[in-house]
């Protein structure tokens, strides 16, 4: 059971701890986040359950349910990272995401597009330079 901590009239939730507890091997990853910042639908649901629990909702009584995304939202989530990876020049990651999306949505075929963009790209992939000045 979690503690409720009130500080300056705000409810403090140990959200990272709760997300780690609900993740395989305690590692929060793509099941709960679309990218390094934005929660997926499942991530938002986990955060909502944590908030509802902290506010006193009884999950055992069914007060906190896991929402089901409409198919179009789930499809958008499945391909959300691909443009980011392409902009950064991370074509292997984009291809991986495209294959995962195609497994769920067979009409998504991006192999030719990714290959063409890779062939036309004259810039190196984005990475944080080690010796970059502050």
Output the keywords.
6 helices; 134 residues; 2 domains; 4% strand; mainly alpha
**Structural domain count:** 2
Strand content: under 5%
Neighbour order of strands in the largest sheet:
1-2
SS-based structural class?
Answer: mainly alpha
Order of helices and strands: EEHHHHHH
Helix fraction by DSSP (H/I, runs of at least 4) = 40-55%
**What's the gyration radius in Å?**
19 Å
The count of DSSP E runs of length 2 or more, i.e. the number of strands, is 2
Task: Describe the structure in brief.
By secondary structure, the chain is mainly alpha-helical.
Describe it.
The protein is mainly α and 134 residues long. It has 2 domains: 1-67, no CATH class; 69-126, no CATH class. It has 6 helices and 2 strands; from the N terminus they run E-E-H-H-H-H-H-H. The chain has a two-stranded antiparallel sheet with strand order 1-2. Strand 1 (5-7) and strand 2 (10-12) form a beta hairpin. Helix 5 (91-104) packs antiparallel against helix 6. The relative contact order is 0.09.
Q: Topology, please?
A:
Elements: E1 5-7, E2 10-12, H1 15-21, H2 41-54, H3 71-78, H4 82-87, H5 91-104, H6 111-120
Antiparallel strand pairs: 1-2
Helix pairs in contact: 5-6
């Amino acid at each position: 059971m979690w503690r409720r901590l009130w500080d300056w009239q705000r409810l403090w939730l140990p959200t990272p701890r709760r997300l780690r507890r609900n993740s395989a091997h305690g590692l929060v990853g793509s099941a709960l986040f679309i990218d390094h910042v934005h929660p997926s639908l499942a991530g938002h649901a986990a955060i909502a359950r944590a908030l509802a629990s902290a506010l006193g909702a009884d999950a055992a009584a069914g007060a906190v349910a896991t929402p089901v995304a409409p198919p179009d939202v789930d499809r958008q989530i499945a391909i959300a990272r691909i443009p980011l990876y392409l902009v950064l020049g991370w074509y292997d990651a984009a291809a991986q995401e495209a294959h995962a999306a195609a497994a769920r949505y067979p009409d998504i075929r991006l192999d030719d597009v990714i290959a063409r963009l890779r062939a036309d790209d004259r810039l190196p992939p984005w990475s944080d330079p080690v010796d970059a000045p502050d």
